[in-house]
Amino acid sequence: AQSVTQPDIHITVSEGASLELRCNYSYGATPYLFWYVQSPGQGLQLLLKYFSGDTLVQGIKGFEAEFKRSQSSFNLRKPSVHWSDAAEYFCAVGSNTGNQFYFGTGTSLTVIP
Amino acid sequence: NAGVTQTPKFRVLKTGQSMTLLCAQDMNHEYMYWYRQDPGMGLRLIHYSVGEGTTAKGEVPDGYNVSRLKKQNFLLGLESAAPSQTSVYFCASSPRGLQPQHFGDGTRLSIL
């Protein structure tokens, strides 16, 4: 069965610093991978997705993610974090049936001014 | 541009009561999903639907029922609420399978 692991429960970075959020997946075939962001009291918003092709994908708000098949990872990065990036971030993988998604437990990001 | 709308936003129930959560989407999406979000557990799929008139079980379906009588609506029912069902419930929709999901703002449900 598919699964997603986000090893970091909580990360704190200073504004302007770079960011990397880790995501590891378990999947037998080519995965469909997603990163979502959730602001307090809100639903999830799609940041970016990977289906195939170029392993470095660009998303909204200056985020990017790199798919590494050899490491079963899909880490999210941002070169310079803004205070408004403070939120909860979720990695997700689509199931091989195409009907379900499996979410990680999330990483909470705090940004220090 | 409403997207996915969940009703109600908050609700407090007593153990044993029943209620229905409504999800409505105006994007003509085929697929709809109900998740629950609990601290430290991420989102877990309760039930989903791949089209009008269809429903299927997800990871944690026990204690819940769903219906998709109209393409734009997906209802989640709790027949006899239990404290373990205290959670934040999210509805989502997507055009078809493996496409990015659009989420509602959630329903915060407390069961005493």
In short:
The complex is a heterodimer of chains A (113) and B (112). By secondary structure, chain A is an all-beta fold.
- Computed over alpha carbons, the radius of gyration of chain B is 13 Å
Number of strands of chain A: 12
**How many angstroms separate the termini of chain A?**
41 Å
What string gives the helices and strands of chain B in order?
Answer: EEEEEEEEEEE
| Continuous helix count of chain A | 0
**Arithmetic mean pLDDT of chain A:** 92
Please mark out the parts of chain A with pLDDT under 50 across 5 or more consecutive residues, or reply none: none
Beta content of chain A comes to over 45%
Percent helix range of chain A: under 10%
Structural class of chain A: mainly beta
Uncertain ranges of chain B = none
**General form of chain A:** globular
Tell me what the structure shows:
The complex is a heterodimer of chains A (113) and B (112). Helix content of chain A is 0%, strand content 51%. Chain A has 113 residues and is mainly β. In chain A, the strands form three sheets. In chain A, strands 2, 5, 6, 10, 11 and 12 form a six-stranded mixed beta sheet that branches. In chain A, strand 8 and strand 9 form a beta hairpin. The termini of chain A are far apart. Chain B has 112 residues and is mostly beta strands. Chain B contains no helices and eleven strands. Chain B has strands at 4-7, 10-13, 19-25, 31-38, 42-49, 56-57, 64-67, 73-78, 87-94, 102-103, 107-111. In chain B, the strands form two sheets. In chain B, strands 2, 4, 5, 6, 9, 10 and 11 form a seven-stranded mixed beta sheet that branches. The radius of gyration of chain B is 13 Å and the shape is globular. The model of chain B has no long low-confidence stretch (mean pLDDT 95). Chain A binds chain B through residues 9, 32, 34, 36, 41-46, 49, 51, 90, 94, 97-101, 103-106, and chain B through 4, 31, 33, 35, 40-45, 48, 50, 56, 58, 90, 92, 96-98, 100-101, 103-106.
